[in-house]
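Regression test attached.
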Amino acid sequence: MDFVAILGSAIQQALGPTAIIYCLAAIGLNVHFGYTGLLNFGQAGFMMVAGYAIACAVTIFASSLWLGVLVGLVLAALLALALGVPTLRLRADYLAIVTIASAEIIRQTIAAASFSEYFGGQDGVTDFIAGFRDANPYSGSVGIPGLFRWSAFDIWVMTVGWLLVAISCLIVFLLMRSPWGRVLKSIREDENAVRSLGKNVYAYKMQALVIGGIFGALAGFMVSLRSAAVGPSFFATDVTFFAYTVLLIGGAARVFGPVVGAIIFWFLITALGGFFSQATAGSDPLIPEAIMDPTQASLMRFIFLGLGLMLLMIFRPQGIFGDRRELAIDAR
Amino acid sequence: MIAVLALLAPAAAATASSPAAPLTTADAGSVCQAPERDESDPSIYIVGCLRDLREEPPAPVPGVGITLSDAEGNELAQAESDENGAFAVAIPGDPISALGKDYTVAVDEDTLPEGSGLRNPDDVEQTITVNTDSDQSVAFPIGDPLPGSAGGLTLALQLTVGGLVFSSLLAMAALGLSMIFGTTGLTNFSHGELITFGALVAFAVDGLPGQISIGGLNITVIVGVIAAFVVSAAFGWLNDAALWRPLRRRGTGIIAMMIVSIGLSIFLRNVFQYFAGAQSQNYSQYSAVTPIQVGPVQITLKEIAVFLVAVAVLLATTAFLKYTRTGKATRAVADNPALSAATGINVERVISIVWIGGAALAGLAGALLGVTQGFDYQIGFKLLLLVFAAVVLGGLGTIWGAIVGAFIIGTFTELTTLLVPAEFKFVGALLVLILVLLVRPQGLLGRAQRVG
Amino acid sequence: MPAETEPTLTKGGGTAAPAATRSAEARAALAGVEHEPGAKKPDPIVVAHGIRRQFGGLTAVDVEHLEIQKGVITALIGPNGAGKTTFFNLLTGFDRPNEGTWSFKGQALDKVPAYKVARMGMVRTFQLTKVLSRLTVIENMRVGATDQRGEGLLSAMFAWLWRGQEQDNTVKADELLERFLLHKKREDFAGSLSGGQRKLLEMARALMADPELVMLDEPMAGVNPALKQSLLGHVKSLREEGRTVLFVEHDMDMVRDISDWVVVMAQGKVVAEGPPHTVMSDQRVIDAYLGSHHDQDLSEDVEEQILAEAQAEIDAEHPEETK
């Protein structure tokens, strides 16, 4: 068992582009769920419209990535409005069902063969990030020899990504310490009380939904930039659930919760994946093939993930490092 | 690196496939003998076999014209089926340049024998993507010309029948979800896994060595379906006793429980895949059954049987809820748990029964789905949103609402294929869900006063 | 709202005397009012007419006419299921009647959402106290202030735009906390307060908005006797400040002690009105409380009706779930 290799790839993933994507998605969910109590189960949908927006801006309209960014942000905001209108006056679980359904509607529509001319069907869209690649100021690669290394492109993606994370965290911090953020937290506690104090609860929820969706859009941009491609399989329902796991690990309603959560999540997932993959590899594997073959080994991390999400929610809903008294979500 | 995201989405690719598609007679050409040809020819051939499936064994259909065109519609080559019904048509040009391109293979319908037609009229033209340099095969199942190809009304009738069969299964799953919601307030995102569990139990029984028979009649799969019902019931009890009851005792909030159910869903789905693999499975019996003609509609006997079983179970369940003491207690708890507890109803016992019943219904639905259309490790997960749509449409927590909602959603998804491509039928159903929430959030049969 | 509010309302101290005179005058004005349901008041702040709310087949509220006199304490009493809380919900916009018109300070409220009703100066509390559990007591208070610049999304990120106002609000909140004896709990989570303290906090929070009409839904429910006296004092002090108080209560001692006027509801209708001592001896009120059939045994029909009414009451308490 090569623990150094496992550690190396775990660190690489924990700080790399994938962690950034889930961090941004979880920052959005933090605004939705952590601060406002809105159960958005369709974050993947917000990511998808944004991811496809930059891809299609280049491939269909032959315009720049920047226009794609603008369109992506606008689309994410519109999606939030469209989801909010029918559901924000209803109970929490309706929003959950509608958002998860909408994300699937978007995904299946974009994946449809009927629209493959525009969105490439199941294959998705590629060849659109030349502009982003050309802007890369780095060359060579960075890393700790023998442990891990990032290519120049990875470093470029990470620079942009962590910058976005930093800006997002700053915005969340500034918003949540303000009276505006206080109203959101109050809505999470009891929206009727807030209404009785003269606040337009519906408008606040809508604003929160839009802002969280925009953070989701940033995550979507990062997906298409780092992969140099977008496809419907990048935005499956589970992506949202993993982002929730990230948020809960770091602790909901904390500014840096999503950052801490994303790093820990990807460290553990990669390490688990590496461990089981090595334990089943070779001619004389650690775990006999009769018990676990390499395909099954690749599932182990998801089995642990599901179990982890349950145990986290039951025993440490305040996050791994959180203080139970500061638990912001209704878990008890 | 790209693979990481893709790997994280194991559900992705398959989700778009239709849950209700009738089983196609896919391996109709498997016994087909390809025409002799020169092994040294490097060209990529499109091969296939034309067989009349009304005969037993299927009879070859010779002399049928086949046309190969490229993606732009330019005709490239032609061929004719030989005495074995087989044909082979080479893609002209360098095999390498053909890679990654789409080709269309079409049957000349005029050359089909009188009174025959393609089972599926949409199959007249099939598009093939060439990804490897090996030969590609294509199937054109031949049988009675589908009556619907002439009249839209007949096609609608055919789709309605298919939709009803599917709806009856959806209704069983929806009823379980709705009852669990009604009594515990839990929106259970792992309900889909209860469906899959049933399909897997039946598959496990089916996979036991030997076969189970009574008087020489092989009833392995029937026993499997019954086992799915019983073992799922036990699984439902276990779900409640090991997880949800302790959580209720702690006073866990419904949102927290919802997230726990998501964790459970991810956990179970991957455990299922661990043991059952990712591929689509069929039971050893009833996987390829020739449909019979009832009036203008084609239906298989197994579909009739499945429908009858499902309707009988639904009627039995509603009768149980309506007339028995326990059933009345269940409805009382769903209506107002606190008041029920105050009137001396043992709420925990009722919830336990609801979990047992709800999981049994879901498991049975899964096993029967497996019989009608096969299954894989995430069949329930793929169905979950349709189940939600049915339950919300009918009114969360109501009993009749879940059933009515399921029948509307189930037939609607099938009938939309009249107007839009089949790949959008899921999307249509989910749009209906959102529209209903906009207009009548309490659902069709929900009370206006209180949702839930 | 605050524009129309008398500037003297905020603090008890220096301006109490003229306010007290005003409320004494207002009470004196009630002397000439008929002791009949729907009686006209000389200076009504709330006028409700033909309000009907049905749940399914059951009529929970059916109020022909009701006026609430400005500057006095009016008690709304009645047996369980009389529709008091539903009526409260209707007046404050938390529920919508099937028909009827009602106004506050002469402005029709038919199409006004709950939050705007509150901004107009009609702030309510809830029977089941709604404190914001995982916010501190002082944050609970700050939420209560109206017209906060920092509550707009655009200005929220720029602290210099709202910091001054926030400090003013905090000063005001601290004064109210002091007055309501909650100052020691300032930094505690509201969820850690006792039931009585929550009632106090809810009332104090409502005052952050400087309401003209304070509507209290069972302020004494679940409050221990020691706190009751101070709560009574607080309600009285609201009147001395010139505010109008409408409260729902079951505690007859409290009703007798502090109210200037009593409205009795039974089965959704207003059955009696008048000063406390007159109303308490009114035959219609005794009938309402004991049931006009109180000399008969309860038949199954009646029992069922009572249960149905109880259900309607429960429904009415969750108006949000009804939409």
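Expected vs. actual: identical. The beta strands of chain A are 125-126, 141-144, 148-151, 229-230.
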